[in-house]
């Protein structure tokens, strides 16, 4: 039941991401770094639900674009600390704003009561642990 809606929302987000020169995973990474001033690659991967080796290309692209920085971890020279840059935060906020405007437009199709119930249910289901969803 949700698949057509989710697919359409993703399709609506892709041009927004393209206009800002990032991928969906790039946007996920920028959001993952938003609340973590510095994060190791392993901690970020866990936070966003990605394999740490699979996001390397995304991190390379974001770093090359000046949207994140990678600095050696003083506590572990094998690790790098990732941080979102000011430019990265501007891109993240711009993309988020465009996505939210589209979501608001879509939610305007619902009555106030339907919107409240939908958002409440979506928030509750989104907060479930992944293991609970998969089981």
Notes on the protein architecture:
The chain is of the alpha+beta class. The protein has helices at residues 3-19, 24-34, 41-48, 56-64, 86-107, 112-126, 130-134; strands at 39-40, 68-73, 76-84. The protein has a single domain (3-110), classed as Orthogonal Bundle (Arc Repressor Mutant, subunit A), CATH 1.10.10.10. Strands 1-3-2 form a 3-stranded antiparallel β-sheet. Strand 2 and strand 3 (76-84) form a beta hairpin. It is globular and about 55 Å long. The chain starts with a helix and ends with a helix.
Percent strand equals 5-15%
The main pleated sheet reads as: 3 strands, antiparallel
CATH class: Mainly Alpha
Low-confidence regions: none
Protein name: MarR family transcriptional regulator
Organism: Trebonia kvetii
InterPro entries: HTH_MarR-typ, MarR/SlyA-like, WH-like_DNA-bd_sf, WH_DNA-bd_sf
GO biological process, one term: response to stress
Supply the key terms.
WH_DNA-bd_sf, MarR family transcriptional regulator, 64% helix, 135 residues, HTH_MarR-typ, WH-like_DNA-bd_sf, Arc Repressor Mutant, subunit A, 13% strand, three-stranded antiparallel beta sheet, alpha+beta, DNA-binding transcription factor activity, 7 helices
């Amino acid at each position: 039941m949700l698949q057509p809606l989710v697919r359409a929302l993703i399709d609506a987000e892709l041009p927004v991401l393209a206009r800002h020169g990032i991928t969906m995973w790039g946007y996920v990474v920028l959001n993952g770094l938003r609340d973590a001033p510095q994060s190791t690659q392993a901690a970020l991967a866990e936070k966003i639900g990605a394999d740490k080796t699979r996001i390397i290309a995304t991190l390379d692209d974001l770093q090359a674009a000046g949207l994140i920085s990678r600095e050696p971890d003083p506590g572990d020279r094998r690790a790098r600390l990732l941080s979102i840059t000011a430019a990265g935060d501007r891109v993240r906020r711009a993309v988020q704003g465009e996505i939210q405007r589209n979501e608001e437009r879509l939610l305007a199709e619902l009555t106030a009561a339907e919107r409240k119930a939908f958002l409440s249910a979506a928030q509750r289901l989104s907060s479930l642990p992944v293991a609970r969803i998969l089981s």
